[in-house]
Amino acid sequence: MIQGKYKLSNPEYLDTPAMLTYPHLVEHNIDEIIRICGSSENVVPHAKTHKSSDILNMQLAKGIKSYKCATLKEAEVVAECGASQVIIAYPMVHPRKLERFISLTKSFPETDFRVIASTEKHLNLLSIASKNIPKNIGVYMDLDTGMRRTGVQPGSSAIKFYKLIDETLGIEPIGIHVFDGETLYIPDFEQRSRIVGKNILRMEEIWESVSESGIQVKDNLAGGSWSFQHYADHPNIRPTPGTWIYWDTRNAEMDELGFQIASLVLGQVVDDDTEMDTVTVDIGSKSCSSDQPLEHRFKLVQHPETELVLQNEEHAVVRLNGASLNVGDFVLAAPGHACTMTVKFPYTNAVSEEGKLVGIYQHDARDR
Question: Which whole-number Å values give the CA distances from 282 to 194, 271, 318, in the listed order?
Fold first, then answer.
């Protein structure tokens, strides 16, 4: 079976739907992220996309030692693999989460665990938690540059809050954390670049003000899948890309980037409707990127002219638009959002460049 650049021997050996990952394309993407960011030390990727110690070890082997984690389970897996630095990029409020965080710092003393904060409540809780460990907790101020999800507003509020981190017992300011979700799905390079330029000016204003007060700014993290490359040349910012390791059809709209879609879903045509010019495949919302608008949830690699018109939990209806597909045919579907595909499967099947099944990559951090 050959579809586009992807080969798969004996697809009938896998029950569908099944997740596939091509390690040679993962390796390509790792090399590409290091090239764009300048060095392995200058990139802090998310673990959320792959959630796998196997994929993580491929990155560690290339010298990437710092990672952002959205959940404490991700942080645990990353630390177990030997990463030197873990940033919990999500506010921790629940007492159980804070207990687990402290437990992680004790279990992995060689790993530098850091957190983000944007409210006084966060700081108070972290201060209390710090009493259970022998060193201060490093804190990035989460800066909201326009997404309006989490973060302090830029300007005087941010400067005041950064100083409050410095004044709070048991914690210490590290720098600024920015996830600029307002750049998502803007394919125009220059438009994204202008947004990032404004964000950098906001960060520089804070750095200048707090530095005048004698407060340290040691490290700064910024960017996501759609903007990280625009921060890569700034000497005081480490880019924090998300989806790059597997890539997907939405992110591929940024045609200036050279990543390859490395993970797909193997499905099969299970029914057809010639009157409606459609076929039904067994790639439902439980096996693909169901957070995306319907038309963006997946694209059939071999038949880009087809259109997803309906999806249920276990099935999807695809309008053919001139494509030829028959009941029993196998299809490869490229995800619209790789991060939300991974959690649908307990593991992914590793496939060599020649199309041979060579093992599985467990999704160790699939659960929270």
Answer: 42, 9, 11
What is the per-residue DSSP string for 75-114?
Answer: HHHHHHTT-SEEEE-S---SHHHHHHHHHHHHH-TTSEEE
Q: For the CA atoms of 67, 71, 73, 78, what is the dihedral angle to 10 degrees? A: 0
Sign of the four-CA dihedral 90, 93, 94, 100:
positive
Residues 6+ away with beta carbon under 8 Å from 252 = 259, 261
Spatial distance between the Cα atoms of 278 and 323, rounded to a whole number of angstroms:
10
Joined tokens for residue 310: 């309906």
And the tokens for 167? 């004044």
The CATH fold of domain 91-240? TIM Barrel (3.20.20)
> For the residues of 159-216, what is the DSSP string, one character each?
HHHHHHHHHSTTEEEEEEEE--GGGTT---HHHHHHHHHHHHHHHHHHHHHHHHTT--
Q: What is the residue extent of each domain of the chain?
A: 2-20+258-362, 91-240
How far is residue 94 from each of residues 104, 148, 313, measured CA to CA in Å?
16, 21, 32
- Does the fold of domain 91-240 match that of domain 2-20+258-362? no
Indicate the pTM of the whole model: 0.96
- Per-residue pLDDT tens for 338-350? 999 999 999 999 9
The CATH homologous superfamily to which domain 2-20+258-362 belongs is: D-serine dehydratase-like domain (2.40.37.20)
- Per-residue pLDDT tens over the stretch 194-210: 999 999 999 999 999 99
Q: Which residues make Cβ contacts (< 8 Å) with residue 307, sequence separation at least 6?
A: 295, 318, 319, 321
d(Cα 144, Cα 180) in Å, to the nearest integer? Answer: 7
The token pair at 360 is: 């599985």
Closest CA to 140 of 217, 84, 79, 27: 217
